[in-house]
Write a structure and sequence with these properties.
Number of strands: 13
Order of helices and strands: HHEEEHEHEEEEHEEHEHHHEHEHHH
Shape: globular
Oligomer: single chain
CATH topology of the largest domain: Aminopeptidase
Radius of gyration: 23 Å
CATH class of the largest domain: Alpha Beta
Bound molecules: zinc ion
Distance between the termini: 40 Å
Structural class: alpha/beta
Strand content: 15-25%
Helix content: 25-40%
Strand order of the largest sheet: 1-2-4-3-5-13-6
Low-confidence stretches: none
Largest sheet: 7 strands, mixed
Number of helices: 13
């Protein structure tokens, strides 16, 4: 066990900093990397909490991706098997395991670096510190602004409940605010003089709800009111605002759907004689899978010994599994042997083996900014079991288990797998070429166009 890395992860867990505010977490990781001999640049791509650590020189350039942002409303005490906020229930907590993610990628970078150093081999190891995954699209800015232009292969992971190679795609997502401006007036005395921004929001939502019948079944559109214009029914609300997420399976499709939603917003403004501001917020690209890298990662799982657990650890896992309804635990997508996984889910509290997956191009519901990286370089990803089988991401159970020895072992395991995959790629440069050829073939005539316009800079989202 690498106690220093576990301590670093625990520190980041306790800081629980949300997107673009991960100052202490970023500093702690950069300091660690500097001590390890990496050349670190902090504050890249207009993001104070983004960093790049580099060691070595020459080809290949392998870049490990790290995340470290927390989630609002996820404060939770460690090791407690019931909902128990550490501070206020609105405060942030590490509900997605990103405190492990960033450090696990550092572990991989250091292990791979040690291999290059000890064997006097050429090659560049990079660790890219990517802030604001949960909201903020940190990686999209890094991809858009050329921070992977020298990278040959990107590798990453996400803490989870199962040891597996990630496959398939994720949705493109555009996040946008619609701000309507009207004219206030007395809603009883002079309603004819008022122009309601709230009406515009409501009409826009009605329009979009009619659009649903005419979208592809894999498209998703959801909205929230950011401003309803006030609490007084006797005032015609002059200011109101909606936030929309518009998702489709590819960037070009998401852009088309976005344009249709914009037309509906314009229609609502026209109907209500209000003015409309469209404020672009975030854009995430769909993920481009890479089967060559999936195979390399799968081989690495076969080679690296899985962690071993004590009876106390298994009992700990069981105590968390018991907090979650068994019937809600699904078999992971694309499991090669779903019946076997069903048995494991039924009988075990912790996944201790390796789940083989079938390659897939299918688009899962949900989005990640890893998608943008996967458009610019071949990208491979894995999951390791850092939490008991049961509750999934963004749950108090994940926060509670975040500093356990199980979480630490999952982090360390992920580091070994990613390092092993990098070693394999270094030893067999033809695999890198194959991964690149597959990437090229998948993109075809499409070129990467970040969904975030050039003039939109990283910002904190309302
Ligand atoms: Zn998350
Ligand atoms: Zn996450």
């Amino acid at each position: 066990m690498n106690e220093a890395l576990n301590h670093l992860a625990d520190q980041i867990w306790s800081y629980a900093e949300t997107g673009f505010l991960e100052t202490k977490s970023c500093d702690a990781m950069c300091e660690y990397l500097e001590q390890e001999g990496f050349e670190v640049t902090k504050g890249i791509a207009d993001m104070a909490t983004a960093y790049k650590g580099v060691w070595g020189h020459g080809k290949p350039v392998i870049t490990f991706l790290g995340e470290y942002d927390a989630l609002f409303g996820m404060s939770q005490k460690a090791d407690i098997t019931e909902y128990a906020p550490r501070t206020s229930n609105e405060d942030p907590g590490h509900g997605c395991g990103h405190h492990l993610l960033g450090v696990g990628s550092i572990a991989a970078a250091i292990e791979y670096r040690n291999y290059l150093r000890d064997n006097h081999l050429e090659g560049t190891v990079e660790i890219l510190g990517c802030p604001a995954e949960e909201s903020g699209s940190g990686k999209a800015y890094l991809a858009r602004d050329g921070y992977l232009s020298n990278t040959d292969i990107a590798l990453s992971w996400h803490p989870g409940q199962f040891n597996q190679v990630s496959t398939g795609s994720s949705q493109s997502c555009i996040s946008v605010n619609f701000r309507f401006h009207g004219v206030s007036s007395h809603a009883a005395g002079s309603p004819h003089l008022g122009r309601s921004a709230l009406d515009a929001c409501e009409l826009m939502n009605v329009g979009v709800n009619y659009l649903r019948e005419h979208m592809e079944s894999t498209d998703r559109v959801h909205y929230a009111y950011l401003n309803v214009g006030g609490k007084a029914p006797n005032v015609v609300q002059s200011e109101a605002e909606l936030k929309y997420f518009i998702r489709s399976t590819t960037n070009p499709k998401a852009v088309k759907l976005y344009e249709r939603v914009i037309n509906i917003a314009k229609g609502a403004a026209l109907m209500t004689e209000t003015k409309l501001d469209v404020l672009f917020d975030e854009g995430l690209s769909n993920t481009v899978p890479n089967f060559v890298l999936e195979n390399v990662l799968s081989e690495a799982f076969m080679k690296v010994p899985a962690p071993e657990y004590t009876d106390a650890e298994l009992a700990y896992a069981k105590s968390f599994k018991d907090t979650y309804p068994q019937e809600n635990i699904g078999v992971p997508h694309r499991a090669k042997h779903p019946e076997l996984m069903k048995e494991i889910i039924k009988n075990e509290a912790l996944h201790t083996g390796f789940m083989e997956s079938d390659h897939s191009e299918e688009c899962g519901m949900g989005s990640t900014d890893v998608g943008d990286i996967s458009w610019v370089v071949p990208t491979g990803q894995i999951n390791t079991a850092c939490f008991a089988i049961g509750a999934g991401a963004h749950s108090w159970q994940w926060v509670a288990q975040g500093t356990s020895s199980i979480a630490h072992k999952g982090l360390e395991y992920a580091g070994h797998i990613l390092a092993q995959a990098a070693i394999e790629l270094h030893s067999h440069p033809e695999l890198i070429e194959q991964a690149k050829a597959e990437h090229k073939q998948r993109l075809g005539d499409d070129v990467y166009e970040c969904l975030i316009p050039k003039d939109v800079k990283p910002h904190i989202i309302d």
